[in-house]
Write a structure and sequence with these properties.
single chain, alpha+beta, Jelly Rolls, Arc Repressor Mutant, subunit A, 3 domains, 9 strands
Amino acid sequence: MNYTYPYVSTNYVSGQYRPQSLTIVSQKISQVQPPHFSDEAEYLIVTAGEVTLLLNNQPISLSAGEVVLLMPFQMQQLKPEPDNPIELFRVRLSLGLVLLSSIDEAQYTKALQNSNRFHPIIRIKQTEQDFLIHFCQETIRQKQLPTGRTSSLNLSLVSYLFHLFQTETQVPLPDQNPDTAWQWLRYLQYHHQSAVTLTELATIFGKTEHDIQQGLVRISGFTFNQLLNQVRIRNATALLQFSELTIRQIANICGFKSIGTFYYQFELVRHQRPLDYRKQLRTHDQLVGLSDGWVIGVYLLEHCYEPITVEQLAQQLNFSVDTVTDRLKQHFGLTFKPLLNLFRCELARPLVLASTLTIDQIAIKAGYHDTASFVRNYRRIWQVTPSQERREQS
């Protein structure tokens, strides 16, 4: 298995891909759905009723409070019970959001080492259900506003879903599907960054190359080479949003031995050169640079619940206090203390709106040593006190 950083796994067939896109819909399903592939990773969040999910022709029972993560190498079909419709949120996310929500190299390595043991279904507690439903409803509402700019909200929702899959109860799965063609497709997806070949795949699974080729076409409609290039080019498309990665580095990460082959395959799929696509991302403000300001801001967001000071942050990241102040002001338009309060109040707001915690308890969770300070900062940022907003929401 290849341990190249970063680790990604998905299949790419969409021509309308955007590296930071997310679509979310609320559905009430009363009839059997036709089987289909998704061209992106997709979450199904069941909020009411029961349904049978056929996953690669395996029946799996789902009920309210369960969340399933579907990957593009899985065929899905929903079969609700007669006269018993189900309600769910369907969240489709791009690979770019996967990368942005997991920028820690250690997380990539852990994901890679455990990829074959990934568990796609979890059951979440009632408190988390209530919060997630509210979060999804608010995301849909925000996307319907005239401004239509929800990039940060997209990232927040994906990050929260990732968190749930790391912390909530796993639901047991039935035995593996005996159709080994699904295993071939899965192997290709997880090993696309290495020099995987049709011959290697046939050897590993004890089949002929013809058997492998026919099996992949049967279940996906694509040949081995088509699938391999699809996954590699979508990987590259997502990585192009990170400005500090060179084109040659991206080609190497995605498994291309030759930069010329990478250029050829990219233009074949995207109908433009990698550099032109990167310029397009810059035009649409979807280019991310791992600058000092970004690194400092991400660290502050991850530790804002703690009693952190600017001196502690500077020491931890090996910067001077002046450098921290300058980079934050340049990158976020705020110095340390105002940005810390903004992060704390942003993360506290869902608890105010959807949890049963008291305001005093939320203040402590948000990192404030006293409730008055929390209320003062909350009102300055949201123009309403936590108690007032909770009453209005109710």
